[in-house]
Design brief:
Strand order of the largest sheet: 1-2-3
Distance between the termini: 37 Å
Helix content: 55-70%
Largest sheet: 3 strands, antiparallel
Shape: globular
Order of helices and strands: HHHEEEHHHHHHHHHHH
Number of helices: 14
Number of strands: 3
Number of domains: 1
Strand content: under 5%
C-alpha cells in the first residue's frame, strides 16, 4: 500500500504544480488572470491542509456523518439556485457568492457527498444489495434527487459525471446489472430529452456536429484549442511563449487549460499528463482491492472513477472529441471548489490505504459476487 500512497501523493503534487505553473503563464499575458493565480494558490494551500487532516483521520469514523453531509450539500444546491444568494453566470446557477474569495460551487461537494453516502449505505446493506429495492430503488431515489438539484443549476456535465460514478459504485457494491441497466437507459434518455429542450446545450451539440457553422461563436473554443495543441507539436513553444492564450481560447484557465499545456509544453508533457491520470486511477483501484471494508473499498473506487472519468471528459472536450461539457481538468484547472473537493477526496483515499491490512484482500468485484451468491442462497 505504500507504493499506492506514493503514486497518489506524487501524481497529485505534480498535477497541482503543473496547474499553478500554467496559471502563472496565462497571467503573464492577461492581467485579470493574476487574481486567479493568487486565489488558486490560496485554495491549494487550504486544500492541502484539508487533505492532510482527512488523511490523518480514520475514514471509518466518517460513516455516521456521510448522510448529514449529503443533506447539507442538498441545501447548498438549493441556495445556489436562490436569487440573492446564488450567483448566475452565463445562465447557469451553480455558484454561491463568497465576497472577495469568489464563489462556492456546491456541485463539486456533491461529488464527495454522493461517494461517501453510497459507500456508507452499501457497507450497511452489503448482503442485501442484490435485491431490487435495497440495491437500486432506495439509493436510486436519493441519488436521483441530488442529480435533479445539480441539473437544476444547468450543470449537465456534472450531472452526467455523477450518474456514471453512482452507477459504477452501485454495481461494484452488488446491485445487479439486470436492475441497473434499464434504469440507466431511462436516465440517459431523460437527460437526452432535457438536452433537446435546452437551446444553449443543444447548440453545443450542433456546434460539435457542424463546427464550420459555429467557428466564430460556440465552436470557437474547441477549434482554437485544436490549433493551440497542434501548434505546440512534440516539444512545445516553451513555457510562457504560447500565443493562443492571448484571447484566442476562451476559458483557458479552467475548462481549456490543456490547450495551453499542449501549446507551450507540447506532446512531451501532455502524454505524461494522461499517464499520470491513469496511474492515479489504477492506484486508487489497487487501494479499493485491498481496503479493510466495503466502505473504504467503495470510497477508493469512487475517487478513482471520479478523477479518471473527469480527466477523460475534459481531454475529450479540449480535443473536440465530444461536445463541450464544462468540466475542469482535475488538480490542474483553475477553480477553488473543484480543488478543495478533489484534495479532500484524496485525503480519504490515503486514509483508506493507510488503514488497509498488510495482506491483499479479495478484489472489490469478487466481494460483490460473494455477496450475490450469499443472497441467492438465503433467498
Amino acid at each position: 500500500m505504500r507504493a499506492a500512497i506514493g503514486i497518489i501523493t506524487l501524481v497529485t503534487g505534480l498535477l497541482i504544480t503543473l496547474g499553478i505553473a500554467m496559471l502563472h503563464s496565462i497571467a503573464m499575458h492577461e492581467p485579470e488572470a493574476v487574481g486567479m493565480f493568487r486565489k488558486q494558490c490560496l485554495w491549494v494551500g487550504i486544500g492541502l491542509v484539508l487533505c492532510v487532516v482527512t488523511a490523518s483521520i480514520d475514514y471509518r469514523r466518517t460513516r455516521s456523518i456521510s448522510y448529514v453531509l449529503l443533506a447539507l450539500t442538498a441545501v447548498l444546491l438549493v441556495l445556489a439556485r436562490t436569487p440573492g444568494i446564488g450567483q448566475p453566470i452565463k445562465g447557469a446557477w451553480r455558484w454561491i457568492k463568497l465576497g472577495g474569495l469568489g464563489s462556492l460551487q456546491p456541485s463539486e461537494f456533491a461529488k464527495i457527498a454522493i461517494i461517501l453516502s453510497i459507500a456508507a449505505y452499501a457497507h450497511q446493506c452489503q448482503r442485501l444489495m442484490p435485491r431490487f429495492t435495497v440495491g437500486l430503488v432506495y439509493p436510486g431515489a436519493v441519488i436521483g434527487l441530488m442529480l435533479g438539484l445539480v441539473l437544476l443549476g444547468k450543470d449537465l456535465g456534472t450531472t452526467a459525471l455523477i450518474s456514471l460514478i453512482s452507477a459504477g459504485m452501485l454495481y461494484a457494491a452488488g446491485t445487479r446489472l439486470r436492475h441497473l441497466v434499464p434504469v440507466s437507459v431511462i436516465g440517459a434518455t431523460l437527460l437526452a430529452a432535457y438536452l433537446t429542450q435546452d437551446p444553449v446545450r443543444w447548440r453545443r451539440v450542433d456546434a460539435f456536429l457542424h463546427p464550420e457553422l459555429y467557428e466564430e461563436t460556440i465552436a470557437l473554443q474547441s477549434e482554437q484549442s485544436k490549433i493551440a495543441i497542434g501548434s505546440g507539436g512534440i516539444p512545445g513553444l516553451g513555457l510562457g511563449n504560447g500565443i493562443q492564450k492571448s484571447g484566442f481560447v476562451p476559458e483557458q484557465s479552467t475548462d481549456f487549460i490543456l490547450s495551453v499545456i499542449g501549446e507551450e509544453l507540447g506532446l512531451q508533457v501532455t502524454l505524461p499528463l494522461v499517464a499520470a491520470y491513469l496511474a492515479f486511477t489504477l492506484a486508487a483501484l489497487s487501494i479499493a482491492r485491498r481496503a479493510a471494508d466495503t466502505y473504504g473499498s467503495l470510497i477508493a473506487f469512487g475517487v478513482g472513477a471520479l478523477v479518471g472519468l473527469q480527466a477523460i471528459i475534459n481531454i475529450a472536450v479540449t480535443t473536440a472529441s465530444v461536445p463541450n461539457k464544462g468540466l475542469a481538468l482535475p488538480f490542474v484547472s483553475y477553480g477553488g471548489s473543484c480543488m478543495l473537493a478533489l484534495l479532500i477526496l484524496t485525503g480519504f483515499l490515503i486514509s483508506v490505504a493507510w488503514h488497509s491490512p498488510a495482506e491483499e484482500s479479495s478484489p472489490l468485484l469478487t466481494r460483490r459476487d460473494e455477496r450475490e451468491e450469499s443472497s441467492l442462497q438465503n433467498a
